[in-house]
Amino acid sequence: MALKTEEMVLNMGPQHPSTHGVLRLELQLDGEIITNVIPHIGYLHRCFEKHAEAMTYPQVIPYTDRMDYLASMGNEFGYVLGVEKLLNIQLPERVEYIRVIMAELQRIASHLVALGTYGADIGAFTPFLFCFRDREKILNLFEITCGARLLYNYIWIGGLSHDIHPDFIRLTKEFIKEFRPNVKELNDLLSYNRIFIERTANVGVLPLDTAINYGVSGPNLRASGMKWDLRKDDPYSVYHKFDYDIPVGKGEKGKTGDCWDRYYVRVLEMEESLKIIEQAIEQIPEGDVTSAIPKRVKPPEGQVYARVENPRGELGYFIISDGSLNPARVKVRAPSFVTMQVFPELCKGFMVADVVAILGSVDIVLGEIDR
Amino acid sequence: MKSPEEIFNFLKEKFGNSVIELKTDKPVDPYIIVDPIEVDKICLLLRDHSELQFDSLMNLSGIDDANGDKVKDENGLESIKGGTLSVYYNIESTSIKHKLTLRVSTNREKPEVVTVTEVWKSADWHEREAYDMYGIVFLNHPDLRRILMPYDWEFGYPLRKDYKNPEFYRGMKVPY
Q: How far away is chain B from the Cα of A44, in angstroms, using its nearest Cα?
């Protein structure tokens, strides 16, 4: 006698430790196989875009911090880049260098959270502690720079709120020296761990053409095998002055674009960020970081789309100015928001337990999905 | 790599009156205004033509132009009648590395734009967001629901310039 089977709907979240925030996933299951996933977002909606319309341009910056709260420096960077394009102002070289150093330190800090929590999601708890130990050192560097550890309000339109601390360069050099061997330690502990590979290789494969059509960007796109990085392909600030490589997924442990590739691209990217920071602190020129800050920010009528390579991918700001002191429209193209759309495609045909592995590997932050 | 002028002339030849105008007078990015009912066909050609290859939609953004008449009701509350809502498309080609901005404008009272989800899948959630925030209806969209606001939100579209908060939502006071 054949057993009658029925499709089952399983609710995951919004309060679930491995959804990395308040995300609800509606899983449609055939036994333990996933037939479809419907993500429900909006639990963290804080009306950033409405707020931005009521604020003056500089007042928007603290709000941008709170979107992708693991990469606040990158968020500010993108926003001020857009406003500066509208204003058409030239910056002192020193400002650009400090911005690049901060953005790259932030990238390492953000990737450390992504890698650590990914290990914890899958059941390896120790790497999580190791990653957070190293991230703590980066947060200390930010703390001596601007007093804040997570939400900085450091990068301002036309400059920075403070110059770097006199000890900053020495401490950064010390950090790089301490951190380099830790990447190898992480590899030995987690990346090449047999159990970890079994859980992540060949799981959640994202083919390249699907990735491009869905607008996936950043490490997730590179893991699918495309050498695409806005720092190289649409250069902004002073990134063209540095020598570094763009790591891509090669399908070392399974198919190109699987969870392991997405994980490992981030590990390799940390090393490249270290290279950029090393070069930047060698070349950093002297200068006044507040000299170009405009007294009154009143851009002419117009519209601009500015984007930066954030740890999670292409972060874009579409800003429309009507010639007044407040922006008429600020639309944020959040990388996690776009990546989340492809998530159902990744999960189809895998097991329920793999949802956790796939969600961890695409590395989303709900703060910027819901804004 | 093609300039916006070349692309505009090419599209004008193919689509005639559906391609309305090229705006270059304001900073920073020039944009092409097209017809909201033909935008999907235009985008499909932009994606598939061998010399254009716009394979990626970077961003899709609604905006309230707030260019209609401002009317006051008996309580002194202002609302906007007439005018337009617009949608901006920022697209790029990852192989040729050129970028383009398209814009469509639609009637505020009955805002309708044809969806481009068939061309770029990434448009799906962006269009849902534009619907959620401005009430722009994307024709032929596979799944046009609210996305950031609650599914049962019936007090209008929050990013419109004349939006007013309701006093209560399901018994909860809203401006608390």
A: 9
Residue A331 tokens read as: 């639309």
Structural domain for B64, as ranges = 4-173
Which residue from B28, B56, B90 is facing A86, i.e. has the nearest CB?
B28
Backbone angles phi, psi at B11, to 5 degrees: -70, -40
Dist. CA A44–CA B148, nearest whole Å: 9
Instruction: Please tell me whether the interface predicted TM-score (ipTM) of this complex is above 0.90.
Output: no
Which residues from chain B sit within 8 angstroms of residue A14, using beta carbons? none
User: B94 — contact with chain A (CB < 8 Å)?
Assistant: yes
Mind listing the pLDDT tens digit for each residue in A286-341? 888 888 888 888 888 888 999 999 998 899 999 998 888 899 889 999 999 999 88
Return the percentage of chain A with pLDDT > 70, whole number: 100
User: Among residues A245, A206, A214, which one has the least CA distance to residue A227?
Assistant: A245
User: Which of A41, A232, A329, A364 should we substitute to test contact with B (largest number of B Cβ atoms within 10 Å)?
Assistant: A329
What does the pLDDT read at residue B107?
Answer: 87
Domain ranges of chain A: 8-370
Question: Which CATH number do you get for residue B142?
Answer: 3.30.460.80
- Residue A370 and residue B59: Cβ atoms within 8 Å? no
CA distance A171 to A173: 5
Domain total in chain B: 1
Assign B111 to helix, strand or coil.
Answer: coil
Return the residue of A nearest to B125 by Cα: A341
List, for residues A161-217, the tens digit of each pLDDT value.
888 888 889 999 999 999 998 888 888 888 888 888 888 888 888 898 888 888 898
Contact flag B31-A226 (C-beta cutoff 8 Å)? no
> Domain A8-370 falls in which CATH fold?
Cytochrome-c3 Hydrogenase; chain B (1.10.645)
Q: For testing the chain A interface, which of B29, B59, B88, B165 should be mutated: the one with the most A CBs within 10 Å?
A: B59
